Amino acid sequence: MDYITLEGIVRETEKASRFEHSLGVVEVSDVLARRFRLDVELARMVAVFHDYSRYMDAQAMLDFCLLHRIDVEEEERQSPMLLHGAVAAWYFPRITNIWDERAFLAIRHHTLASRHMGALGAVLYVADYSEKGRRHLDDNDRLEIWGQPDLEHMVLDVLSREREYSYDVNRKFARVSSECMEYLESGGRFAR
Questions:
Q1: Would you state the CATH architecture of domain 3-185?
Q2: What does the alpha-carbon distance between residue 23 and residue 67 come to, in Å, rounded to a whole number?
Q3: Most distant CA pair in the chain: distance in Å?
Q4: Number of Cα atoms under 13 Å in the Cβ half of residue 181
């Protein structure tokens, strides 16, 4: 399957506003994948598909993950809507016939980040957070994030913003996000 075909499938499943978000994520993912010499077509496909399961009922997502033996983080168990990435990751190869672990890990970890998400996952994580339709950022914020020297620093920038937001709203910062920060701060690199 190619990107155009997959975009058509996603267009049929998402509301117009969500689809516009997905296209914004595709735009940023395309630029970042080119910049860091990653598979651009795969980055675009992962980006357009990342919210494929966003409209599934939260409890149904948790049940789906348990049924299919998908690992669930404690924060995801408490807030099952976060599992839309895990469910979409399961569907991606079954719909596209692309069985690529990089795609699975990228989609799976696009909500909370993970040290295991790989470079493609870092692209998706940053793009999902910073695409132009996101109103929590202004252009200066985007330029600050995108101006980082590498994907690891971009993800660190986003995670720092997420941690600050979590504290502001009195919400616990996710353990897996914290572990990713610690990994990157100690010089860890995403698998290419």
A1: Orthogonal Bundle (1.10)
A2: 31
A3: 43
A4: 16
What is the pLDDT at residue 44?
Answer: 98
pLDDT of residue 160: 98
Calpha distance 65→140 (Å, rounded): 38
Average pLDDT over residues 97-110: 98
CA distance 108 to 110: 6
Contact status, residue 75 vs residue 112, Cβ threshold 8 Å = yes
What is the predicted pLDDT for the residue at 188?
Answer: 97
DSSP 100-138: -HHHHHHHHTTTT--TTSHHHHHHHHHHHHHSTT-TT--
Average pLDDT over residues 30-47: 98
CA distances from 191 to 12, 34, 115, 183 (A): 33, 16, 9, 13
- Both tokens of residue 117? 């998400």
SS3 call for 168:
helix
The band of 131, judged by pLDDT with boundaries at 50, 70 and 90, is very high
Angle formed by the axes of helices 3-13 and 16-35, nearest 10°: 150
89 band by pLDDT with thresholds 50, 70 and 90: very high
